Amino acid sequence: MTEIDHSRNGDGQPSTGKPGTVMAALDKNDLRSMFHLLVGKPDSTQQMFKRRVHVNIAAIHDLHGQMVEKLRNHRVEGMIATVDVSFEDKTSLEFGTWAEFEQHRWTSPKVTREVRLRWEFLVTVDGYDVPQRHTVTVKLSPHLKPIDVMRAVLSKDPSEADSFEIESVPIFCRVDFVNHILSKELLALVDEWVHSLPQPAVENSWFSWFEERANPFCALIRYSAPLLTALAALLCLSLVAPLDENPEAPLTKGYLVMIAQWAFISLIILYVVDKSSGFIAGKTFESIQKYGAFRMFKLTSGDDEGEQKLAQRNKKQVRNFLISSGFSLLINIIGGVIVYLGFTN
Predict the structure, then answer these.
(1) In whole angstroms, what is the distance from residue 42 CA to residue 312 CA?
(2) Extended beta strands in 211-306, E state
(3) Which of 221, 240, 241, 259 would be 328's cystine partner, CB 3.0–4.6 Å?
């Protein structure tokens, strides 16, 4: 490319090449590559992981080691890894280099809320004269803040709704890339790492069976007892007020009083059983929904203490579940026995 010789001075006249004149001399290919590096928007791919896992310091170091090892197979010119850690008390730590993260002592009583890992590196890509920037971001967050939920519910912007979906998953990975093959390798690496992490004990407990079937199980508790009570009331009618052998016989006053008493008592019992069943079903569903809480992170001393508290809370939910479902079972047994005896007699 020839030098640009039509630059002008402050008077609007062509430059004469005197000292102070700014001359441009860049090759077109170099200029195109530099422009793409500075302002070009790379492609991106992302993957969300809903697997509930435990993450400790050793696991994070392992992911970084795998990332470095993977990039050694490519023509990487330079890389920087950063880590952002936020806590439940609204404080945060930002590590500008991986060495700072490695040297940090995790003896704090704070409880970890979110961890964001970011790798930025330059890769020499065929077809480009200068190395191209690539970025890998991994977000670890076990739950959402209430303000985030309300913002997503009230938002009218579809892009914000997509962002809410991304933020709601425990683990999210995004790769900004120019080299498509490398991006697929990096996503596969993160996917393998996520599935190598240990799951909390609550994922493999017997109570998980009820978590998957909470709605039908609670519906059974809600409606089975009132149904059996209604059947038992109908059978009791034939016992306390048997029909006369002559269907054309006139109804006596005593017979009508007995029918009225049966109806009144049956309605009261049915009302009590219905309300009790609704209350028991609600408590059962609540205990199922609250069970399974755990701490994703095991970084600080506060995380370990919080995990112990959640374990005790899970035991309490199991106890509440056994009490409520056991009481419901007792009501159903009583109603079932009455119905059985009524039919047999």
Answers:
(1) 48
(2) 297-298
(3) 221
pLDDT one-digit tens code per residue, 204-248: 677 778 878 888 889 988 998 888 888 888 877 776 666 555 556
CB 147 within 8 A of CB 337: no
pLDDT of residue 45: 87
The predicted structure's pLDDT at residue 177: 82
Scored b (16 or more CB within 10 A) or e, 234-248 reads ebbbeeeeeeeeeee
Question: Which single residue is written with the structure tokens 């809410």?
Answer: 164
- Biggest CA pair distance of the chain: 130
CA distance 158 to 155: 8
The Cα–Cα gap between 116 and 166 comes to 13
- Three-state secondary-structure class, residue 247: coil
pLDDT digits (tens, 9 = 90+) for 21-70: 443 455 555 555 555 555 555 678 888 898 889 999 999 999 999 999 99
Pair type for strands 171-177 and 297-298: unpaired
Please indicate whether residue 207 or residue 319 has the higher confidence score (pLDDT): 319
